[in-house]
Known about the structure:
Elements lengths: L1 H22 L1 H8 L6 H10 L9 H8 L3 E6 L3 E7 L5 H18 L4 H14 L2
Antiparallel strand pairs: 1-2
Helix pairs in contact: 1-2, 2-3, 3-5
Amino acid sequence: MVKTLTQQVEAIEAKLLTLLEQHFASEMTLLCSIPGVGRKTAGMLFLFAGGFTRLDNYRQLIAMAGLSPREHTSGTSIHGKVRITTMGGGLIRGKLFMCSFAAKKCMWPAKPSLTASWLRERIRSWP
């Protein structure tokens, strides 16, 4: 029973990815060009962002995914560390976190300066 359900879920995921790649080929190609991001994560990010039609800029996507920095301070003497907020999409945040490991593994030893500059340019080019 579990094996059958797993196979059905995998078949539906494959069909959904195929439909996304057919109807939104250019967007999926751009998302898959990000180091560490594969077909499944690109599809999930595209669906999470609503096709990027509801967002005005990249900051809204960062806030929606719960990746924006937040500092906790209390009074004048207690200063906490800056951490990311945990509000927002936990599933997409986890997927992007795992993709960062794949990107680091692919790019870090050979081209250490490429990661920071590539990400900076990528963020600046977002609408």
